[in-house]
Amino acid sequence: xxxxxxxxxxxxxxxxHHVSMNYLREFDKSVKYDFLYFGKxxxxxxxxxxxxxxxxxxxxxxxxxxxxxKDWNKFCDKHYGEFDILExxxxxxxxxxxxxxxxxxxxxxxxxxxxxxxxxxxxxNIRNKIFYEIxxxxxxxxxxxxxxxxxxxxxxxxxxxxxxxxxxxxxxxxKYRFNDKVREDIRNELNWNGKRVIGHIGRxxxxxxxxxxxxxxxxxxxxxxxxxxVLVGEGELKERIEREASKEGIRNKIQFLGYQPDISKIIxxxxxxxxxSVFEGLGISAVEAQCCGLPVVVSENVPNDALITNYSVLxxxxxxxxxxxxxxxxxxxxxxxGLSKVIESGYDIKEAAPSxxxxxxxxxxx
Length: 366
Hints:
Blueprint: E1 2-7, H1 15-26, E2 32-37, H2 43-51, E3 56-58, H3 65-79, E4 85-88, H4 100-104, E5 108-113, H5 122-135, E6 142-145, H6 148-155, E7 164-166, H7 180-189, E8 196-201, H8 210-223, E9 227-232, H9 238-247, E10 254-258, H10 263-266, E11 272-275, H11 284-291, E12 296-299, E13 311-314, H12 320-330, H13 338-344, H14 349-365
Helix pairs in contact: 1-14, 8-12, 11-13
């Protein structure tokens, strides 16, 4: 079975790609993901996909309407009948694939919600939602979502008649098993010994709320000068956040680590994980942190599915000092049951991947 994944980019900074690859690595040879993308890509990502017997296809951005349609029509002509399923990971673009059964010969169209909003900013959310309502809400046969909140927020009550399935953002949980030696090594390597490390992993975008993170961190420094803030990720707002940190006089206390290929090692060096998101489909990095046993401090916008063990929930309307006091109270309080609790919650890719394989085959057969 071949499934065409519609995805924005093939980079380590893409949460959608991260989730897809976690499953692809664990699938047996009966299920393949091919990727149609229109954004950035990284050579190592494409090489890994190809090493797994899968393919990648670069097309013009849908924002360049005519160029995209031209590329899409060429793609359909060349690859008609090669795919069983089209799975679109950007539901607001559903309308572009309205005729994919006729044009590409797929048996099913799946729309997959990875977030609870259609865009990072207020403007993009409104624009994309309107576009979805006008062109795309009646396109899919099946609905996927990382949480029930994501399914309900994106697809609403309009598609109640359609089958919907929660597909967890599963991962290799054993990579995140707490290890004293790993923690010691990474803290030595990054000069974190004797410091209180507040960690955050996420793309530099409005969704992840980095400006509020800086405010919280500034309040933490009033409680102890041993605090350091570690920000992992890339994104369009990174330079702006660096400038803001310099303006606030706290830049020398912050490490911007950029993209990291092995988060499982970095995260074990943290003392607390901070995640004040404006919205989330799930918040997989918060789940990974809990798997390590880290205390996590999150906003009220993080879905219940991501709240498993050793977590604290605060409101974004709360003063940064309240967040700082919470962080100061829980930092370094590791949980010994993190791994087992995350496995019990269904995030082990070793179990989730075979389950998703069976679902694909059942959907096509039915």
